[in-house]
Design goal:
Blueprint lengths: L2 H16 L11 E2 L6 E3 L2 E11 L4 H7 L13 E12 L5 E2 L3 E5 L5 E2 L16 E2 L4 E2 L5 H4 L5 E8 L9 E5 L7 E5 L3
Parallel strand pairs: 1-12
Antiparallel strand pairs: 2-3, 3-4, 4-9, 4-10, 5-8, 6-7, 6-11, 11-12
Length: 186
């Protein structure tokens, strides 16, 4: 047996032994990047993307279409920032989604999302997800978009981007005192 084949065999054997014994899987509630699935209650969430939006770009204008008129205007030192979120209910019972969100910077700034009007097909809605289903549903506008996530829009000072990493924290009014978070890849 060649040395390379032996090393591969030993590596696989080590992985196999590491899986023996403890059947419990650690629940991740804090993601160090957007790639990590995090759990809140019985639902797994993944930030699909986060980025600054350009209100003058045609694609971003469509995302901002659900912003109420009273919230549309940005101050000269403000930006629009979007977080695209996907959720999966891996249980056998319907689950409500997170309905409390905040972005935190490193100097104590906290920013809540702007409430979107029902006209926005891309906006995140804290709906109930059927057993084994994902949100947003694949057939929806946000489920068909390249991000496959529903968007939450934040209005923040430009300087917030200087105080990174930004932490996206979310919770549920159905689960008081529990929260999960993801470090945004800004």
């Amino acid at each position: 047996m060649s040395r390379r084949l032996l090393l591969i065999f030993l590596a696989l054997a080590t992985l196999g032994l590491g899986a023996c014994g403890d059947d419990e899987v650690e629940t991740v509630t804090k993601g160090e990047s957007e790639a990590v699935y995090v759990t809140l209650g019985d639902v797994q969430y993944q930030v699909q993307l986060s980025r600054q939006l350009n209100q003058f770009d045609a694609g971003d204008r469509d995302l901002l279409a659900g912003v109420p008129d009273a919230e549309r205007r940005l101050a000269p030192d403000e930006i629009w920032f979007g977080v695209w979120l996907r959720a999966q209910n891996g249980t056998e019972v319907p689950q409500g989604l997170a309905d409390e969100f905040v972005i935190k910077d490193t100097i104590g700034g906290e920013f809540k999302p702007v409430a979107m009007t029902p006209e926005s097909p891309f906006a995140y809605r804290p709906v109930e997800v059927a057993p084994g289903e994902v949100y947003p549903v694949v057939q929806s506008a946000s489920g068909q978009a390249p991000t496959t996530g529903a968007v939450l829009l934040f209005k923040m000072p430009v300087r917030t981007l200087d105080f990174r990493p930004l932490e996206f924290e979310f919770g549920s009014s159905e689960l008081p005192g529990k929260a999960s978070s993801v470090r945004l890849d800004v």
